Structure formats: C-alpha cells, structure tokens
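wait is this the right file?? whatever heres the structure
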C-alpha cells in the first residue's frame, strides 16, 4: 500500500490524466468539426494540440504505474460547441488550469524526492505554457481585429 504522500500524488496525477485525455478529445473534436476558412487555418493547429495532449496523457499514465498505481482512462465530458471563439476561450481556460495543477504536482514530486518526475512535470508545464501562449495570441489578435 502506497504511503499517504504517494497516494496524494497518485490522486493528483490521475486528475491530470483525465484533464489531458479530455483536452485531447476536445482538440480532436474541434479540429474535426470546423468548416470554412477555419478548417484550413486553425484546424491543423488544433489537431497538433490533440497529438500533444495524447503524449501528455501517455506520460501521466506511465507515471501512475511507475508509482504503483493503476491509471483510469476516463475523461470528463467535452464541450460540443462549434463556435470557434467559444472553443478557443474554453481551451485557454483549460490550459491555464492544467498549468496551475502541474505546478502543484511539481511541488508534491519535489517533497517526495522524485526529482526525475519533477523535471518531467516541469517540461509538461513548458509545453502547456507554449499552448497557452499560442491561444492567447490568436485570441488577442481577434479582440483587436486586423491591423
Ligand atoms: Fe497537456
């Protein structure tokens, strides 16, 4: 039986895993349903994000097993909006939440002396931050309109 700190970390990683799986499904859905100019401009970006989220989910799933747990591959329900602006607003909110949660996981891993895991989680934060910046940039251009 895992000690309390490990148990807590496993619970956090499981929540992270579900969030990443949901993100992966969300991006995949979005990249599929877009029509018109967005189908060739933004859809490939969203598909790429879906691939990245799958990598994150696979990493987290492996870490759960490494710590003696068993991953549950379930995901919260995704939004089925077909409004591009709403899609991207939702994505940005979720990326920000992912980063906040991973920061917690980094602290937990450090306290447990799991330095390898801590560094890998920091790399995830770096990738999530890039995703967040890309979304912010798209949305910022949108708010001000073309110049
Ligand atoms: Fe992610």
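ok assuming it is, sequence goes like this
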């Amino acid at each position: 039986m895992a000690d309390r700190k490990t148990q807590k970390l496993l619970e956090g990683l499981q929540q992270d895993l579900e969030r990443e799986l949901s993100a992966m499904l969300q991006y995949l859905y979005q990249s599929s349903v877009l029509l018109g100019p967005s189908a060739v401009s933004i859809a490939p970006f969203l598909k790429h994000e879906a691939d990245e989220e799958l990598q994150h989910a696979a990493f987290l799933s492996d870490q759960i097993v490494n710590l003696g747990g068993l991953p549950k591959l379930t995901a919260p329900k995704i939004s089925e909006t077909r409004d591009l602006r709403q899609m991207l607003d939702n994505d940005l909110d979720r990326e920000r939440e992912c980063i906040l949660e991973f920061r917690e996981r980094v602290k937990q891993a450090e306290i447990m002396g799991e330095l390898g895991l801590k560094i890998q989680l920091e790399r995830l934060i770096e990738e999530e931050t890039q995703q967040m910046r890309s979304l912010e940039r798209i949305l910022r251009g949108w708010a001000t309109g073309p110049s």
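The chain has one domain: 4-144. so i think its the right one actually
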